[in-house]
UniProtKB/TrEMBL annotation:
It comes from Neobacillus niacini. Gene3D superfamilies: Electron Transport, Fmn-binding Protein, Chain A. It comes from the Bacteria. InterPro entries: Pyridox_Oxase_FMN-dep (IPR024029), Pyridox_Oxase_N (IPR011576), Split_barrel_FMN-bd (IPR012349). PANTHER family: FAD-BINDING, PUTATIVE (AFU_ORTHOLOGUE AFUA_6G07600)-RELATED. Residues 35-150 form the Pyridoxamine 5'-phosphate oxidase N-terminal domain. This is Pyridoxamine 5'-phosphate oxidase N-terminal domain-containing protein.
Amino acid sequence: MDKQFKELIHSEEELRTLIGFPSELVKRKMITYLDHNCEEYISKSPFLVISSSDQSGNCDVSPRGDMAGFVKVLNERYLIIPERPGNKRIDTMRNILANPLVGLLFMIPGLGETLRVNGKACLVRDNELLEQMEVKGRKPLLGIGVEVEECFIHCAKAFKRSGVWDPNSWLDEKSLPSVAKILFGHANLPGSSTELIEERLRESYTKRLY
């Protein structure tokens, strides 16, 4: 890494000299439980990303999304995320088995401020809980339970700078990257094609969401 980047920072002291220190509001905003404000935010959030790492510290981040309120707050210390059908890589779940520490970032479309929740996760097969998260007659095979250790609001600067919620900043459909083309180039699957991958994606998105 030293060969690629110059003038690296090697200590928090150096970092603080450059960045400075947080305000009293920022230092005091973190709580260790889900209060009614956090519960309301989560109830209106249709999307989150979850970060995890394995026992060696190799990191991963993965999206989770469904109808607003799909994450169930059980009480001020615990929540559960339904695990809907995916690509079966199970990266997040394998990581949780090796290292339970996770970070969650909840988002609400149109709102720049996000909700960050950090804690310990486990994989849950509690049928009574899973039935409460059933959609279209299908309950999740399992859920990701999280014991909350830290919870706080993150400011909107990144969203304001990026304009991510502003439709005027979005690319037109023809300018968007072709996901099928990317997958075709990365997978290099014999007998495949961009068109076949596009059809496979279309079928997955219309028939296998739940």
